[in-house]
Amino acid sequence: MSNAPGPAAVSGPTGPSDEEVAALDAHWRAANYLTVGQIYLMANPLLTRPLAREHIKPRLLGHWGTSPGLNLVHTHLNRVISSRGVQGLCVWGPGHGGPAVLANSWLEGSYSQTYPDVTRDAEGMGLLFRQFSFPGGVPSHVAPETPGSIHEGGELGYALTHAYGAALDHPGLIVTCVIGDGEAETGPLAASWHSNKFLDPVHDGAVLPVLHLNGYKIANPTVLARLPETELDALLRGYGHDPLYVGGDEPIGVHRAMAAAMDLAVDRIRELQAAARTGGDTRRPHWPMIVLRTPKGWTGPVEVDGVPVEGTWRAHQVPLPGVRDDQEHLRQLEEWMRSYRPEELFDASGRPSPQVLACVPEGDARLGSTPYANGGLLLRDLPIPPLDDHAVQVDRPGTVLHEPTRVLGGLLEAVMAATAERRDFRVVGPDETASNRLDALYDATAKAWQERTLPTDEHLARDGRVMEVLSEHLCQGWLEGYLLTGRHGLFSCYEAFAHIVDSMVNQHIKWLRTSRRLAWRRPIASLNYLLTSHVWRQDHNGFSHQDPGFVDHILNKSPEVVRVYLPPDANTLLSVADHALRSRDYVNVIVAGKQPSFDWLTLDQARAHCARGAVWEWAGTEDGSRAPDVVLACAGDVPTLETLAAADLLRTHLPELAVRVVNVVDMARLLPREEHPHGMPDSEYDAVFTRDTPVIFAYHGYPWLIHRLAYRRAGHGQLHVRGYKEEGTTTTPFDMVVRNDLDRYRLVMDVIDRVPGLGVRAVAVRQAMADARTRHHAWIREHGTDLPEVADWTWSG
């Protein structure tokens, strides 16, 4: 399947014939029938017998209110895909309408193709109904189990940004995105309207938003549904869209209006693409969108127990809640289901009639079968160049400095250049690519930008593949949509503000975990974070920019999916990044500094260290004749520096002490093997950290994370962790570590305090360390810089 852009054909709408409208209505009624059946029934799917209590599920779970609108959109997408040759994908924002999407997947046959036991007949219909929101069955939301989906129904707010991510670098694709009016009230969705300013009509596909206004959330009206029409129109046009309006509650009229709107939208998309691809038009397009206004719970019960339901918030979930115990509710349910005239829609064996299937596409054109929704089918390996081309030379550890992320930027630039023709790699970030020292990327591509440019602008282009917008939500959503549809990428972010997407990455991790259990879901490229501008080097931003807790959030999640790496130098960062970019079905979090820092390892040493290593023999003073007196452990670039400086001080002041230095890159190594596939078996952990030796662990983030990871280990009682403890401000680099008791002098004092018998013998050394901290405080207040002995330190071991 080619990603190369081509001319977009333009054809005029002809409008559906009466016969086609009847077929559309039949398909829509069939989908509605199947939707209701999933919510309520566990037997008697074709109503061949009067409904009875035993046919009803004991627990009624599901969402009816949004489903008729989703069924309408799916029905009409079938028509334009079949009749207009559209390559289609749909993102279903109102994911509570899971039974609607499942119903349409079953009608088109993609569900039975994916799950052969759920056949497209009465028996399979019965299974479809029973399994919905039932133990051992399928979720009530659109989910990974749903064929054709790339968006979890619990992710309110992210549908539109996922849709734009899917359209990037897929020039032949039209991604329809149904946006619920409740979802439209979220901050991420409000920002997502601006994604059209980053969509290149030449190299990217198109997004067709369908704003579904059914008026209500769970228990309240929605803002956009209550806006005056003129105000809503002004809002959407202000976002840069050309809205088409469809509305009503009379099905045949709505079908005609929806068909006309779909035709106009497809024609307008193709006209805009043709103007850009063959006509050289460089203006930002005003893409079409559809505003669909239908009643909530359309075609369901008008009134229940004397109160209105259809067209109100009461239709949101289960309109008839007492069906098993209330004969009137049971009667209304049967009347409701028979109102769709199922005898016209399905034959005696339960197969959909030819009229129902008249507009349904075939093969991979079906929305439930499109390979774009199973991105691993389209995924190609990244052409990553040899790391030797980008590694820094290290003759002696701790003597030469490089900016690790700038070194990584050279590797990413090479990957970006190697994918120039195939266009399947992007880097996203909130206005920080150059700040994070990744500006070498601009030698291979520019920043995506469709608005006007000024002479003072730099690195902006319509076809750029670096995407910057000051919304972490959009960056995350774009990249998720991009990865889920078969491409690769990296999210570069200031460490403290990765928290903004905590809930988004949580959903993506759940998606990956579930997908791993579905044989038909092919592995996709991992979601890779580069967190930099980190807690220890916020010299000018200060306390507001100091928070290393994203790692804690990630390590709470599914062990089979999450990985966290803290490379201590440039070559180790290259090795970790190479691994992450090649990996599949993971969320990889890499925390690395952008400021000049010491190089400790050659590339070969870095590779070996990432693969198996933990102990840095060259940094300690063990001779192998006895167990170490103390283990100095570290994770993160600044903690590594302070640990090595502490080891250097101990070598000088306490040369008889046997010191082991351990560096941890992969944080999951601290977990037991039973809890994480990267975890160390107890025997290996005990060999590295020992069972009874004091361990002084200098950690990049919150110290209690290390305790949580290692609490089951035999030597946990000997573990003492130093890390960030919410002591931050705008200050010098070394003062940050002193404020949090992570500095080299404090680490030496910890060794003296915790090695049995050392406190009495090394009292003078301990006092010297305390005096150094006192001198530090006085020095920075007078000079504004760190002590020369700190600023000019190099490794002398």
UniProtKB/TrEMBL annotation:
Belongs to the XFP family. Gene3D superfamilies: 3.40.50.920, 3.40.50.970. The keyword DNA damage does not apply. This is Probable phosphoketolase. Residues 594-795 form the Xylulose 5-phosphate/Fructose 6-phosphate phosphoketolase C-terminal domain. Residues 17-377 form the Xylulose 5-phosphate/Fructose 6-phosphate phosphoketolase N-terminal domain. PANTHER family: PHOSPHOKETOLASE-RELATED. It comes from Streptomyces sanglieri.
